[in-house]
Amino acid sequence: MRIIALIASLVVATQMIVTFIVGSSVCPTQGCKIVEGLTIIPPLFLNILGLFFFQVVFWTHRLSEGKVFWGIDPLGFMLLCGLTFDSTLLAYQIFVAQTFCGYCLVVFGFVLLLNLLKGRMQVPFSFAIVGMILFSFSILSFVPGGSVSKTFSLKQAAYGHKSCSAPTKEIYLFFSSECSHCQSILESLNQCNSCDLYFNPIADIEKLGVAGIELNEGFSARINRHILTVLGIDTIPVLVSKGPDSYIIIKDYKNILNYIRHACFTSNDVLYLDKSIGMGDEEISIYSQEDGNCSVTLDCSESKIQN
Question: Is CATH 1.20.1440 the classification given to domain 2-138?
Answer without folding.
Answer: yes
